[in-house]
Design goal:
Oligomer: heterodimer
CATH architecture of chain A: 3-Layer(aba) Sandwich
Order of helices and strands of chain B: HHHHHHHHHHHHHH
Distance between the termini of chain A: 51 Å
Strand order of the largest sheet of chain A: 6-7-8-3-9-10
Number of domains of chain A: 1
Shape of chain A: globular
Number of helices of chain A: 7
Distance between the termini of chain B: 58 Å
Number of domains of chain B: 2
Chain lengths: 230, 316
């Protein structure tokens, strides 16, 4: 997948600036950046949510279409007053191979309960199961590790690796670099609406060092200053 | 009394905001249409037709089922039955005056009784948690709007249905009940589902819309079938009326679905659709306005296709 000269504006403010990004097909592509760096905007643009955008997003020789994408958003929507099982059954309409019972042995959700009664983490897991049920070749996962417990975090990492083996192209965002270095084939750093640095598995150390210098050292200096002055 | 007036003011402000969102031109248009509708109601009263009185008695009942302010009243330590009763009396006042003016004293008494008793009906919370959680389990899972709707408005639907069965011996009762069942079920389509549910059901926008409309009509007509058959049995000469009602419910249901998808954004609730759907259905009572819901259905079908195209064909 290739993203070329992507410009996206939101409320007259340009969020992505002439962004170029290479995404490894059938691989896990991490996207890391601070709050407001443009990670969610980039995923929304890839899906086609942003109206004011220009540029190209190509996948396997053609324009990428929303119908090729499963998009797990940071905020999850379902339908009010439906049970978890009812939500997942819809995905079986066009994907008879989607084994809800087997997947729920992994996530252990109370599928007979109304989704409205689920916690944030449970909703995230249910939404992820839905995305898996959609069975699209491209998967966009916006902060999938947020709000889920440690055990589920590990399960999600294993699932991502298995999906990659099945030929899925995955783009995953996270604030926490460690969650990405253990799963991704490629990591890009997004800052101020541009890809500042990209590294493949062998060079993840460079990314960690870069983030350490650009974020941690800077923050350390500011915090030290406050404590030293008081 | 002071608390009741406060809540009346609160509701008036909500309506004021709703009308503000519609804009002056649309408000004027709706007022003209509503005046025509009221004139029709008035003429019915002049003709001595009491069936419409019965339909007005159902309004507080339907409103009570949809209430979400029980908790707010509890927090404010207010007696909800008194506040609601007062609100229903105010809403029904014009109809009560009509009853009084035309000498329908028994209907006036019935409406007063409804206003006094309906506030004691259990709130939505009880119906969801305890009674209606499994009400829609017999329906195929793809009709999730109905499963969800039955959990929320199941009580109202059951009471309407039983009332229809019980009152079917009276001329015109079944069409009025079907009118209310139509409004009650159109409400099932107020909530916008996730984009995943949307795309999991069909591979095209057109396919999705046809599937939704087909599903609605199938369940709806199965639901009202016993009422229709009873009405035809007791009043076979009124078959054109029941046929007319079936056509009206077709467009009411279709419009509810199309209105939603014309403005679809995942997770949103289109509460304003309730008011619009009520008016749309009322238009069918006036021959001159009969085409409005049909034209709206066509316009909204095109709008829905355009709006949903993003989810089925990427605009990148």
């Amino acid at each position: 997948m290739e993203i070329k000269h992507l410009n996206v504006s939101y409320n007259k403010v340009q969020v992505l600036h002439d962004l170029d990004m290479y995404v490894q097909d059938e691989g896990i592509n991490g996207l890391v950046g601070m709050n407001g760096a443009g990670k969610t905007t980039l995923l929304n643009a890839i899906y086609g949510f942003k109206e004011k955008m220009s540029g190209e997003i190509n996948y396997k020789g053609g324009k990428l279409r929303a119908s090729q994408i499963g998009f797990l958003e940071a905020e999850n929507f379902f339908y009010n007053k439906i049970k978890g099982s009812e939500y997942l059954e819809i995905f079986r309409l066009n994907n008879k191979d989607f084994d809800i019972e087997a997947w729920n042995e992994v996530f252990e959700l109370p599928l007979d309960q109304l989704v409205d009664e689920y916690s944030t983490g449970m909703k995230k897991k249910l939404a992820l199961m839905g995305i898996i049920g959609l069975d699209r070749p491209v998967m966009l996962l916006d902060e999938p590790f947020n709000g889920v417990d440690l055990e589920s975090n590990e399960k999600i990492k294993i699932i991502m690796k298995k999906l990659k083996e099945r030929g899925k192209t995955i783009i995953v965002t996270s604030h926490i670099i460690e969650t990405l270095t253990t799963t991704c084939d490629r990591i890009s750093v997004l800052n101020n609406g541009k890809i500042e640095k990209t590294a493949t598995k062998l060079h993840f150390g460079e990314i960690e060092e870069y983030l350490h210098h650009s974020i941690t050292v800077g923050a350390q200096r500011k915090i030290d200053k406050i404590f030293d002055e008081n | 009394m002071k608390e009741s007036l406060f809540f009346l003011k609160l509701h008036s402000k909500r309506w004021y905001r709703f009308l503000g969102e519609l804009g002056p031109f649309r408000v004027f248009f709706l007022l003209v249409l509503f005046s025509l509708f009221l004139r029709f109601v008035w003429l019915q009263f002049v003709d001595g037709n009491g069936v419409l009185g019965l339909s007005f008695a159902l309004f507080p009942f339907v409103i009570q089922q949809g209430r979400k302010d029980h908790h707010l009243l509890q927090l404010a330590s207010l007696k909800s039955a008194m506040v609601y009763g007062f609100l229903y009396l105010v809403i029904s006042l014009p109809v009560m005056l009509m009853f009084l003016l035309f000498g329908h004293y028994y209907l006036l008494a019935a409406l007063l009784a409804v206003c006094a008793l309906v506030p004691f009906m259990p709130g939505k919370k009880i119906s969801i948690d305890h009674w209606f959680i499994n009400l829609g389990n017999f329906l195929p899972k793809e009709y999730f709007e109905w499963r969800s709707g039955l959990r929320q408005y199941g009580l109202a639907l059951i009471v309407l249905f039983i009332s229809g069965l019980a009152l079917s011996v009276f001329r015109g009762a079944v069409p009025v009940i079907i009118f209310f069942i139509t409004l009650n079920t159109a409400v099932f389509y107020l909530h916008a589902e996730s984009k995943e549910l949307l795309t999991a059901m069909s591979s095209s926008a057109k396919g999705l819309l046809f599937r939704k409309i087909k599903g609605f009509l199938l369940i709806f007509y199965l639901l009202i079938l016993p009422l229709v058959l009873l009405d035809l049995y007791f009043h076979p000469e009124l078959w054109p009326v029941i046929l007319y009602v079936i056509v009206v419910s077709f467009f009411a249901g279709t419009n509810a679905i199309l209105f939603k998808y014309a403005a679809y954004r995942q997770g949103e609730r289109f509460d304003n659709n309730i008011a619009i759907q009520s008016l749309m259905t009322a238009f069918f009572l006036l021959p001159v306005l009969f085409p409005v819901p049909i034209v709206m259905a066509i316009i909204n079908f095109k709008k829905s296709i355009k709006n949903l195209s993003l989810y089925f064909e990427n605009g990148n």
